[in-house]
Each structure stands twice: as C-alpha cells, then as structure tokens.
Fold this sequence. Notes:
The structure is a homodimer. Chain A has helices at residues 32-36, 120-125, 127-152, 157-168, 181-188, 192-205, 220-228; strands at residues 11-14, 41-46, 51-53, 61-67, 70-75, 81-87, 92-93, 106-109, 113-119, 175-177, 208-212, 215-218. Chain A is of the alpha+beta class. Chain A has 2 domains: 13-151, Jelly Rolls, CATH 2.60.120.10; 157-227, Orthogonal Bundle (Arc Repressor Mutant, subunit A), CATH 1.10.10. In chain A, the strands form 3 sheets. A 5-stranded antiparallel sheet of chain A has the order 1-2-9-4-7. In chain A, helix 5 (181-188) crosses helix 6. Chain A is globular and about 55 Å long. The first copy, chain A, binds a DNA duplex through residues 156-158, 180-182, 190-194, 196-197, 200, 213.
Amino acid sequence: MWTPRPPANCRDSVACEGCDIRGLALFADLTDADLSLEPAIEDVRLPAGATLYRAGDPGAVIYTVREGLLKLEQYLPDGTRRIVSLLRRGHVVGLEATVFDTYEHTAIALHDARLCRLPIGIINRLSEKLHPQLMKKWHESVLQAHECTRDLATGSARRRIARLFLTLAPPDAGSCRLFGREDVGAVLGVTMETASRAVTDLKKSGAVRETGPNLFERDLAVLERIAAEG
Amino acid sequence: MWTPRPPANCRDSVACEGCDIRGLALFADLTDADLSLEPAIEDVRLPAGATLYRAGDPGAVIYTVREGLLKLEQYLPDGTRRIVSLLRRGHVVGLEATVFDTYEHTAIALHDARLCRLPIGIINRLSEKLHPQLMKKWHESVLQAHECTRDLATGSARRRIARLFLTLAPPDAGSCRLFGREDVGAVLGVTMETASRAVTDLKKSGAVRETGPNLFERDLAVLERIAAEG
DNA sequence: CGGGAGCTTGAGGAGGATCAAATCATGTGG
DNA sequence: CCACATGATTTGATCCTCCTCAAGCTCCCG
C-alpha cells in the first residue's frame, strides 16, 4: 500500500530560460529578466509508482509536469480508492497549495516522470505577473477533472477504456503507454478484472495492438467508433 | 430538449454592500468603497429548468449562486448527456469566461435560483484585489468536480444516491429537495429507471422519507451507513 | 529453480440496462 | 367540475454487463 517518497537525489537545478515546455508552463509570460531574479527551479525525477505527495500533507510547493503521467487519487469513507484526475505534460500538480495549507489528493507517478518544483513563495511573489497563467492552469485542472467524469466514468467498461486510450496520448503519437490494471480500474470506476477483460476485448477488436509490456499501437478510427457506441 | 432563456425581466439591480452571501462571494475582500466605484450588480432569477447559458456561448459574464441549485452538463460524442458538477449557494458559475472566450458547459437551474450577474469587465478591472478570492473560487470548482467523480460516480446506484442525498444539503438542514429522475440519473451515471428504483429503495430502508413532491427528510446515520457499504 | 506480483481467464450471481406498460400529477378545454 | 391529454415517475420482465471469488498464467528476480 505504501509507496516511497522520491529520494532527495533525484532533484536537479535547471534553468527555466531554455525549458522545453516553457510555452506550456506557468512561467510562460515571464521574461528572462523576471526569472533571473528567482532561485533556480528544481527538476524532480519521479519513477513510476513513486509518491509525489499525500492527501493532507502540508503543501508548500506546486509542480509542473514536464514528462510522464501522474494520477491524483482520493479515498471514500469506506476505503474505496478513486482516481479523480490524470495529469500529463504541461499540467500543474498541487495548485491547491496556493490557496489551502494542505494537499487534497495523493499524487503518484503512473509513468516515469519529470517535474518542475515550484515553491509557492515564488508563485506568491510573482502572483501579479502570473495571474493570467495561474487562471489558465486552474482552468486546465477543472477541464481535466470534468474529462474524468464525462469520458472515463460514463457508459460501458469497453467504451470507457476506448476513451482512455484516446486521451492517453495525442492523436499523432505513434504509440501509447498504459499502466497497471488496478489503476486502470480506479480511473474507470470498475474492478481490475473488468479493466483487464476490456483491454483484451479491445485487442481482439483490433482497436489496439500490444507491441510491448503496456505499450500499444492504436487504431484511432476503431477506438472512436467504440467510444461512441458499442 | 430546448429550455428558454431567462426573460430579461427577472433581472434586478442590487447592492453588494448588504448582500446576504457577501462572505461567500467573490467580492468578500472588497471594501464598500471599492464597490461604490462599480455599476450595480444585477440579480438574476432563474426558475427551475431554465438555462443560464449553453456550451459554446460567448462568455462575457460569470455568476455567483445566491440561492438554489444548478447543474453543469456536457455531451459525449454519441450524444450521451452527463452532469459533471452541481453548484450550490456560494459557488461560482462560468468562471472559465475569465480565461476563455466561450462557456464549457450548459448551465441549467435544477431548483429555482437567484444569482449575481458579474460582467467579466468588472472582474478584470478588479483582478488584482480579487486575486485571492478568484483562486479560492477556482479551487472550489475543482473540489466540486472531484466530488462528482469520487462520490457520485463510484459504487452501486444505492450508494451513489445515498451520497447525493448527503451532499445536497448541509447536515443541519431539516429537509432536502431532490430533482427530476432523468437528471438524478445523469449525475450518477445511471439510467432514469435505476435512479428511480434507488430512491424507492432508500425510502424503504428508512434512509429518507418523502414529505412532499421531491422533498425529503433524511436520516443521516442510515444514509452514511449505506453510502459507506451497502 | 522457486517464489511473488501482476495479469488473465473462468464460473456464478447480483445489479443495472432496456423495453414496455401502468400509475400519478398537471394543465386544458368542454 | 369533469374528461382527457401530456409528461414524469414507478413498476415489471428479461437480458446483458459487471462484480466476486477462485484458479491459472507469465514474467521477473533472487
């Protein structure tokens, strides 16, 4: 049940100026001059399965996903686990730390991930300049949450997982990495066994082809047909 | 399928200074002096069933719910309707208009509602002073969305509707108003028939007692037991 | 080679979808 | 005031999906 924290040694200082996702990031609007006034942003490497933070932890830092995939999970009173959001490249993790003193979810990497670590001190100091981007990132968080309800918690398991495959990677991406069946179940709101059977089913339908462990080639047309009805 | 727009005559100018939900509202931090510089805020009355705005409409105004209940709905490619959020007193509707040029959802009143109408011009003009409250409201929107996934789209229909009853009104509220079964189904991700049967089931279990049309008295202890595992 | 974790597969039963019909509530016109 | 039309809700019957429990399988690692 317990996943280790990322060891301290997977952090690194990096320069924002040349960041490959600067256009997507919170700091998109800042000038190099703005950035030069701030201490260097740390780069966090988070291996698949590692926990970034837990629900209830005091939140003093937010993150931007550079690479990889993270899940946000919460527990129901009866202990049921539910994944309420999947976060990809460009998404911000832990935004609630800017408003509230603890994190709302447990954030765990589903694929090996790289993140920018942004202490909220910096965010507050630059809040005026960051305002438009902050709002955009909040907006993204809401969109992401609604996507989970709308696409991944509606219809049959077959349809849900077809939609998951469609959102897991951009349409032009050659291949598409999935994750453990237990987690697939927790995103779709079904059991692990149903998730497994649904994946098998998509393979048989020719909607996806497994080219490696949890690595799939997708037939977008077939996936879309299934996602929409059947 | 079509619901009429609110007629223009259900608007009224009101003074924010004495607003009964000012503590909950976006303008909580503003002084009376700040407010006196702004044109009066309009009060919108929205009868149950009426549409506030539709997905794709150009968004030039956001709303605060003073009273009543609203749903945010979206459609899947196949036409399936899904309610992705329920908004109550104090919640903000249409926040995305501050970031994007159109609304993301269709917003419809489930109960008779009263809202403050806030043109985004005002929001932008006061954005600096509003910044902390805006962030709080975004945060609320995210919480609300995650609640929908976590509580209302997980487990059996019986458990889902028990949780719906628990969130529909504060614990100390004497009674609790429900809404049409079609909509109950769209919130829970089940059919209307299943929603109807689940309500009947809760009545038989003594978890709720119908005291009028769609008006219920709740037994919180029983509801919580059912919500957690039954 | 043995063990474990994650994944798949199977059989049976419960729960939800679907289609259809009955009931209830409301409003309208005679 | 009643008869009737309309729409929402409830109930019923049947089928299909998904859950549950259990057993096998595969891959990786010691």
